[in-house]
Design a protein that fits this description.
The complex is a heterodimer. By secondary structure, chain A is an all-alpha fold. Helix content of chain A is 60%, strand content 0%. By secondary structure, chain B is an all-alpha fold. Chain B contains 4 helices and no strands. The relative contact order of chain B is 0.11. The model of chain B has no long low-confidence stretch (mean pLDDT 93). Classes of the chains: A mainly alpha, B mainly alpha. Chains A and B meet through helix 1, helix 2, helix 4, helix 5 and helix 7 of A and helix 1, helix 3 and helix 4 of B.
Chain lengths: 185, 75
């Protein structure tokens, strides 16, 4: 018997919103995100006999959601053939050759820190996240929405911890700049 | 230490404890560099806002109902 029991009747209440928010990091359209959550629950129900309890119920559902998202993009790519990559990563480097801030890239104070609570900030944050590449989205979704530990994110993405920090550093520089430009102070 | 390295350490320090030498280097750099100080502060705000996204959007009652039906039909 697994240590952890599955409790399908409470999945929607316990994990529905969290899974939806995770999916929304990867796909911008709400309808598609909601369908992915539904696929996740249906798949989980169909494969629940295979659950051995090595993962928590929550992490197991997220694992299924990730594979649903992968499937979705695979299918979408087939439909879009010849493939056109949406993930071209325009390298953003705010530093000069000595590693100091380029004049135009220097961080500016934001008007007020309390504004972080405002929904406009979240709206801009979402737009800025949509502009990140796939790998950066994956990292943020796993780390901040699912709440995985850094080492588990590395395992999931098969990257080293130094790769992880390079990735997060780059993503944060980009995200910060985008927020500053698009969020009217 | 330059700003590129300092911001890398700043990002890391928001998620885990740095070793003593990095901690000292970062603290010193933040003391002398106001831009990286702003970055350090804003990075923490961004982290908090990202964490808040886990329950930012909520399923509507209709969406929950349609999920319930889908689950029922597949059981």
């Amino acid at each position: 018997m697994p240590d952890t029991q599955l409790n399908p009747t409470s999945w929607i209440e316990n994990y529905g919103d969290m899974l939806l928010n995770y999916a929304l990091v990867r796909v911008p359209e709400r309808d598609i995100a909601k369908d992915l959550v539904q696929d996740t629950f249906v798949t989980a129900l169909r494969t629940k006999e295979q659950y051995r309890g090595e993962l928590s119920e929550k992490n197991w559902l997220f694992l299924i959601l990730r594979s649903r998202i992968l499937d979705y993009f695979k299918k979408k790519k087939e439909l879009l053939a010849p493939s056109f990559s949406n993930d071209e990563d325009v390298e953003y480097d705010p530093f000069d050759e000595n590693g100091f801030w380029i004049k135009d890239s220097r961080p500016q104070e934001w008007s007020t820190d309390e504004a972080i609570n405002q929904s406009e900030f979240q709206t801009v944050l979402k737009k800025c996240m949509d502009n990140l590449n796939k790998q950066h989205k994956d990292v943020f979704a796993m780390k901040y929405i699912e709440g995985l530990e850094t080492e588990d994110v590395c395992k999931e993405l098969s990257i080293s911890s130094s790769n992880y920090w390079v990735l997060v550093h780059r993503a944060k520089l980009k995200l910060r700049k985008c927020l500053e430009v698009n969020w009217i102070n | 230490m330059n700003c590129k390295k300092a911001t890398a350490l700043s990002v890391k320090s928001a998620e885990e404890k740095l070793n003593r030498s990095d901690r000292f280097k970062l603290a010193f750099h933040l003391f002398i560099c106001s831009y990286c100080r702003i970055f350090d502060k804003q990075n923490k705000l961004i982290n908090a806002a990202l964490r808040r996204r886990s329950d930012y959007n909520t399923l509507t009652a209709e969406e929950k109902e349609s999920l319930r039906i889908a689950l029922k039909n597949s059981d």
